[in-house]
Amino acid sequence: MTITDEDCLAETMAFNKEFEAAAVSRPARDERPDATALAALRRNRLGGDTPPVRLPQGQDRVIAGGVRVRAFVPDQVEGVYLHIHGGGWVFGSADGQDERLWRLAEQARLAVVSVEYRLAPEHPFPAGPDDCEAAARWLVDHAAAEFGTRRLLIGGESAGAHLSVVTLLRLRDRHGITGAFRAANLVFGPYDLSMTPSQRSFGSRRLLSNTDTLRRTYELFTPGMGAEQRRDPEVSPLFADLTGLPPARIVVGSEDPLLDDSLFLAQRWQAAGAPVQLGVVAGAMHGFTLFPLTVTERELRRERDFLSTTGLSASHPEQRATSLPATAALH
């Protein structure tokens, strides 16, 4: 296992310690929050206490099947990034990180399309995956006409990384679509909802995610399912056949209960025949990219480089073929 950003370890671990100390004064999230509590939590930025900033560059649209998306289209477009937000399938929104997505759109020359998928517990599995699948199919059919390119990329954070893999598998298995999406950007995702060893052993540390919060989240997203049912490949993509999937960049922090999920998925992804970049960020907790850390800026830069260069086609004169950036390659 290759660890990155060890030179930032002291800063990253100090932030974790401060976060844990502050967590004592934060109200605990109920196992099944009522509508009022959910609404209050959803108004605020993930990991923060204030509503996110909505930028005028974001375009809200309704596409096939009534699915809502939020699009960011820069002047120069060399690809389309289907972004799926995090939030444990319960929180988060397509307009929850406008500033970050607009910056990515401009710097990576991508139209960024973020999916406003339905959230649990009101809409449990398979509602969220259904919406992401519909958005992906719409892009396969309409990206060339809408954005002037067929170069598609997919990715997201946490639950969004899980939904990204589920979407790729659904395209392959339900529609025979492979190769349309040329790269997957998967950031600290849960890929085994029956719980990997690192999830079960992490304990009750008051970081952004721990054993108990993961367990409660899975109960909200997949109510009534036991561990064996959650091992179904349609729920937990770690158990799926991963052949035919695109090159992937898989990132996780070393202090994340989902560490094993990324390590195991990276090995299985590569064994299935696709290139993988695996980045394990020293000392980083789950959701670290939500916070103003040195490792956050580095991760966002590596993400931008990966998305701006992967899957470029020589058939398009505005795109040049380049090799994958050497972050932390899986060996």
Could you provide a short overview of the structure?
With 331 residues, this protein is of the alpha/beta class. It is 37% helix and 16% strand.
**Main pleated-sheet profile:** 9 strands, mixed
The radius of gyration computed from the alpha-carbon positions, rounded to a whole number of angstroms, is 18 Å
Residue windows where pLDDT falls under 50 for at least 5 positions: 314-331
Provide the spatial order of strands within the biggest beta sheet: 1-9-8-7-6-4-5-3-2
Discrete helix count: 10
Helix content: 25-40%
The mean pLDDT is 91
**Through-space gap between termini:** 8 Å
Count the beta strands.
9
> Can you write the helix and strand succession as a string?
EHHEEEHEHEHEHHHEHEH
**Overall geometric form:** globular
Q: What are the key terms here?
A:
331 residues, alpha/beta, nine-stranded mixed beta sheet, 10 helices, 9 strands, globular
Describe this structure in words.
37% of the residues lie in helices and 16% in strands. It has 331 residues and is an alpha/beta fold. The protein has a nine-stranded mixed beta sheet, with helices on both faces. α4 packs across α5. It is globular and about 50 Å long.
Chart the SSEs and their pairings.
Elements: E1 3-4, H1 9-23, H2 35-43, E2 59-62, E3 68-72, E4 80-84, H3 98-108, E5 111-116, H4 127-147, E6 152-157, H5 159-175, E7 181-187, H6 197-201, H7 211-221, H8 227-230, E8 248-255, H9 259-271, E9 276-285, H10 294-309
Parallel strand pairs: 1-9, 4-5, 4-6, 6-7, 7-8, 8-9
Antiparallel strand pairs: 2-3, 3-5
Helix pairs in contact: 4-5
